[in-house]
Specification:
The protein is an alpha/beta fold and 100 residues long. The protein has one domain: 2-Layer Sandwich (Transcription Regulator spoIIAA). 32% of the residues lie in helices and 29% in strands. Strands 1-2-4-6-7 form a five-stranded mixed sheet, with helices on one face. It has a two-stranded parallel sheet with strand order 3-5. The longest helix is centred in the middle third of the chain and has 13 residues.
Length: 100
């Protein structure tokens, strides 16, 4: 599976684990994990093992940011490869999300 989701006991933090490809193929799972449930206090998007990311993935992250409160959203992207970090910088998402 391309996306799995965990949350803490209180549901305050939702962690998304994406593997292999982060593209439109995980859109439904992403929607169900994040956008179809009440907003959490914070989100962690774990990209360990992601080998490919396309523009639809960037769009999903922007939708998550909007859902989580826009400028007040607390979204951390962790374990992104150098290549993925470069994609975030080129797209300007490094200013909207926290890259750890």
């Amino acid at each position: 599976m391309g996306l799995t989701c965990d949350s803490d006991a209180e549901g305050d933090c939702i962690t998304l684990h994406v593997s292999d490809r982060f593209d439109f193929s995980v859109h439904r799972d992403f929607h169900d994990a994040c956008l179809a449930r009440p907003c959490a206090r914070s989100y962690v998007v774990d990209l360990e093992g992601v080998t490919c990311m396309d523009s639809s993935a960037l769009g999903m992250l922007l939708l998550l940011r909007e859902h989580a409160g826009g400028d007040d959203a607390e979204i951390r992207v962790v374990n992104a490869s150098t290549e993925l970090r470069s994609t975030f910088r080129v797209a300007g998402l490094d200013r909207l999300l926290t890259l750890d």
